[in-house]
Each structure stands twice: as structure tokens, then as C-alpha cells.
Amino acid sequence: QLQASGGGLVQPGGSLRLSCAASGRTISSATIAWFRQAPGREREFVAAVSRSGATTVYGDSVKGRSTISRDNANNRVDLQVDILKAEDTAVYFCAALSGSWSQIRRPHEYDDWGQGTQVTVSS
Hints:
- The strands form two sheets. Strands 2, 4, 5, 6, 9, 10 and 11 form a seven-stranded mixed sheet that branches.
- 33% of the residues are buried.
- Helices cover 0% and strands 46% of the residues.
- The chain contains no helices and eleven strands.
- It is mainly β and 123 residues long.
């Protein structure tokens, strides 16, 4: 099971740190990614981190202002997003991929999903 947390109401220009904690499974065997979904829109790839943590990839919408990191010892992956904008408002999900790294941007390839945490950027 994956559990996402850390969402909330943030002012534009602020920062947020989301966490994805795993229970009942070891995340070190999976690529972990964050996706987000705003009302009426498709689920969007935000960022992914490889099993070892050595490789990270970001979606265009957050590139340059976001950092994904993992702590395999504590079964946890964090996503820091800075300079938040109104268009960052969405439900953020973490997900685990046991398959190929080449599939990281495809939500249907993921094996396990957290329940989502709401991020609202508004003044």
C-alpha cells in the first residue's frame, strides 16, 4: 500500500513537500512516480525516481522547480515543488512501477497507487 500525504492550501509562489510512504511492500524494488489530476483533465506525469534514486525525470510542467527523492531505508519517496502556481492545483498521487523505466510516463503501466492528496494553490 502507498500512502500520499502533505497536500494542502498554499499561496502562489510558495512551496510544498509531498510524501509517499509504503506499507506492506518494499519500494526499493520499484520505480516510484508522482502524477497529478485536476478536475476534468487527464492524469499527468509529474516526476519519477529510479529504484536506486540515481535517476530522476520531471514533467515539463514542474521541471526546474521540483525535486523528487527517495529513502529506501525508510520506504519513502518525497516530492518538493517550489514556486507553486494556480495551475499546480490538483490531486497528487504516488505510484509504483515494477516494469520498465521506459514506461514511466504511462499511468496504466503502474502496479500500485496511493489514494491521492489534494494540493490547492490560491491566494
